[in-house]
Amino acid sequence: MEQDNNFVNTRGNPDNQPLIFIHGYLFDYTMWKAQLEYFAKDYYILSYDIRGFGKSNTNDYQITLEEWVDELFDLIYYYKLNKPVLCGLSLGGYIALRALQKDTSQFGAAILCDTHPFADDNNNRIRRANSIELIQQKGLLPFVEKFFPTCFADTTHGTTLYNTLFAKAAAHSKDIAIAGQMAMLSRVDTMDVLQNPPIPIHLIVGQNDKRTPPSKMEKMKFGNTKLDIIPEAGHLSPVENPQKVNTSIEKFLGSL
Questions:
Q1: Which helix (H) or strand (E) segment is 99 a member of?
Q2: Which of 21, 37, 71, 251 has the greatest number of CB atoms lying within 10 Å of its CB?
Q3: Measured between alpha carbons, how far is residue 180 from residues 7, 21, 217 in Å?
Q4: Helix (H, G, I), strand (E, B) or coil at 70
Q5: Mean pLDDT of 128-137
């Protein structure tokens, strides 16, 4: 069964174990297309556009990460999901980690892709401020031209995949792009969730991830948490090498 409520997509049998997929900054839920198609036969899948991105419209651009976390809990309540497994990439990982920190009891496990638990330090705050200024003064396109190459392995640059996703990212409003930067600036450190993981957690990272390199995600390994490094992939590992990512996710889910 598949339902598409404009910005919320559900697939599979509602009686199966629920999985929630949360996309990254300037993307939408369709970035998980390969995972949605692969896992729908055995799981109940919910993927959605974070408020303001994709087809999820908003008139309020004063957004905090906490509001996006509350949105996630609202979806869990509305769709009556029992102990879903969270799978978030980059910004989606920030949301997943904060949700786990806020109320771990709601979840069965978590998969964190190309993300990290660290709040912005001073250098990253300045970098975000410069990004906001660039978008304000020159529009979204110059920012995307600078940002996008860092999201992919060099071998992905110039491909049809790259160009298609670039066009979708650049089609967002500059207001939500700025709001997203401000929301990420507002997030708190969530390392405590990983240091004593209350539920099974699995880590995935692209071997050529420039934004969250494997060395950074290695610091997130505690207890039985494992890190799978995906070859031929950058920051968008589920998009660039979906077969390897699907295998990694499937193996982890099978171990639960």
A1: helix 91-102
A2: 21
A3: 17, 18, 22
A4: helix
A5: 96
